[in-house]
């Protein structure tokens, strides 16, 4: 008789000969491919309980081709460790690590639920009710009127407004926003570049709805200290500093081979206006184009 799969909520670290029937909800890879790469995933069982699973570099070569997001599997035998890292993908007390005797078999398990977002309330984030070390799912509308998009130092910063509810009517999606409930969000590196590419392609075509999965809550003061090194009011300034102008830029030549281009001050879309006022496609009236 086949052994009944264990439930994720029953995992307590007392044994490692587990049998799990799960769906891979999220799958991502970190590290350098073919060198130090490892797989991280979130799996869920038939009751919707989730647990973090790690396949390190020494095991990944055996399983990488078989692991697919949204697919269902029967998995056996793991190393069970405490889920006490700096940041937690799941709330479960433990996480699982592939070992030499781990067995993974793809199986058709239609009863397993698909991924469900667990969106948090903006108010709970602002109030500090949520645990800062756990990654969260957040949905909102980019509010460019409340706070314009800001691109600087390789990151994008914007404000998300909370969606109270949405309704579909005659093929149009209507979003009702909750006034006053906003979050400041920052996208770094690849996510920043993907967002920038999307903005350049879409133009001014209605509101932007963003879903952030496994988002990290970071205190604003902690952010400033980590990425800029000093608190703004504690940067030492010597009163006897003398500034000398060595040269003056009289003109910046922009051509097809330049790394900069004239753009709108608000949406940063490229323009062919070199000097003088113009109105961008986003509706912003510019006195002069800015260089990007």
TrEMBL record:
Gene3D superfamilies (UniProt xref): Nucleic acid-binding proteins
Residue intervals of the Replication protein A 70 kDa DNA-binding subunit B/D first OB fold domain: 9-106
Entry-linked InterPro entries: NA-bd_OB-fold, RFA1B/D_OB_1st
Record keywords: Membrane, Transmembrane, Transmembrane helix
TM region(s), chain numbering: 122-142, 148-168
Official protein name in the record: Replication protein A 70 kDa DNA-binding subunit B/D first OB fold domain-containing protein
Organism whose genome encodes this protein: Glycine soja (Wild soybean)
